[in-house]
DNA sequence: TAGATTGTTAATCGATTAACAATC
DNA sequence: TAGATTGTTAATCGATTAACAATC
């Protein structure tokens, strides 16, 4: 890969992958950029262009073999492997995240949970004991964990992020409703459902 | 407002609003496009340009009065009012959503919960009884509900969306990991945390 | 072969940034 | 007044789309 791939291209690949998994479930084995585009509300040209950054995965006249394309995308995204994830925050939100099946079903395993509140330490959350946040650094380093989720109140999120980064975490999924300041070498994604709702109310008539 | 505002501009306004609320909490009363930009990792020019679509909210030399700007953004986004929201799906995910405080704290009140599974009907979820999905149409229409969240398995999400749309819902927050096909008059936003994780693993070194 | 669809180039479109006059 | 920052215009940048030769 000679040139840098635009971030916006990378961000669409998981969407393609998800659609391909769906097509497999529906029993389909081959698809085309047109079909995929129709399903996703994206132009077929864009899909072909995005995929072409990584190689020629299709065949003229017939389209893409779904199983092959899924494999390729998984390798590009590095999700053909299993990942260990640290979770910080064991309140309502953190507990819900820890219980959620969707993560490990798709290769992301929450393998430790941290909280700062003394009454939560030692309690079980799923199959794991809640650990004090003071143990985070040592544990995350020893397990070489690179991905973490933050589910603490907004006012503590930045501080937690800094602890995680010091411990070697390079990717953070932040559920706290606040923007984090991190070095360029660290990636952050945000989940704030209220923000999504606020993006739609603008369009609702009074 | 003479011309159509780009969707991407609208999508940033809630981010600005959230940052402004944070600044208020920190006791600040005035800010500038530079300060806001630094916090959000966005250029100051972009912030000024975005805001200028809706009017001149600032003062040369001094910047923006935070309280005033928040008010204006809330009105633009139509989040100065309270919204009623329908929730479909009372499984693990739906229950977590129903319990989550963050929605009503910020003006979005879940006022009804629907599920199709007979053993869940009638059970309490928070302060509400779970209703059969067959009642959805009548209830949503009678309450004039315009916003809904979908927290059902992927294979039922499209069907649920269609029921919601028939009942008059115009904005859907979809937690099911699948793309929905909807008319142009209906807005959809997606939340799939795994997708966010997959957007970051690409950048992690092996 | 005829029909379909890819991968890619060039053209278009739209968004971001730079720059600065206006002005508090 | 001098310094700061807005709102806006023009320039730049980058992403999307259209089109088509290649080819299955």
Describe the structure.
Two copies of one chain form a homodimer. Chain A is α/β, with parallel strands linked by helices. The first copy, chain A, folds into two domains: 7-77, Arc Repressor Mutant, subunit A (Orthogonal Bundle), CATH 1.10.10; 83-195, Rossmann fold, CATH 3.40.50. Helices cover 44% and strands 18% of the residues of chain A. Chain A contains nine helices and nine strands. The first copy, chain A, has helices at residues 7-25, 33-40, 44-52, 66-77, 92-99, 102-105, 136-143, 154-166, 193-201, and strands at 30-31, 64-65, 83-88, 108-115, 124-125, 128-132, 147-150, 171-174, 187-190. In chain A, the strands form two sheets. In chain A, strands 5-6-4-3-7-8-9 form a seven-stranded mixed sheet. A two-stranded antiparallel sheet of chain A has the order 1-2. In chain A, helix 8 (154-166) links the parallel strand 7 (147-150) and strand 8 (171-174). In chain A, helix 1 (7-25) packs antiparallel against helix 4. Chain A is globular, with a radius of gyration of 20 Å. The first copy, chain A, starts with 6 loop residues before the first helix and ends in a 5-residue tail after the last helix. The mean pLDDT of chain A is 96. At the A-B interface, helix 1, helix 5, strand 9 and helix 9 of A face helix 1, helix 5, strand 9 and helix 9 of B. The structure holds a DNA duplex (24 and 24 nucleotides).
């Amino acid at each position: 890969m000679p040139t840098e791939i635009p971030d916006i291209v990378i961000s669409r690949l998981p969407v393609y992958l998800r659609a391909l998994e769906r097509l497999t479930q529906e029993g389909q084995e081959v698809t085309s950029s047109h079909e995929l585009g129709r399903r996703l509300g994206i132009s077929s040209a864009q899909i072909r262009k995005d995929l072409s950054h990584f190689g020629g995965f299709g065949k003229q006249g017939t389209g893409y073999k779904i199983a092959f394309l899924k494999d390729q995308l998984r390798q590009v995204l590095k999700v053909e492997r299993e990942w260990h994830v640290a979770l910080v925050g064991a309140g309502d939100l953190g507990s819900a995240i820890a219980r959620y099946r969707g993560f490990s079903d798709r290769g992301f395993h929450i393998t430790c949970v941290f909280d700062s509140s003394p009454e939560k330490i030692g309690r079980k959350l799923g199959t794991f004991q809640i650990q004090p946040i003071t143990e985070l650094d040592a544990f995350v380093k020893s397990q070489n964990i690179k991905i973490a989720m933050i589910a603490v109140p907004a006012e503590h999120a930045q501080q937690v992020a800094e602890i995680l980064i010091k411990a070697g975490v390079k990717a953070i999924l932040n559920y706290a409703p606040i923007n984090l300041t991190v070095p360029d070498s660290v990636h952050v994604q945000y989940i704030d459902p209220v923000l999504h709702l606020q993006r739609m109310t603008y369009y609702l008539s009074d």
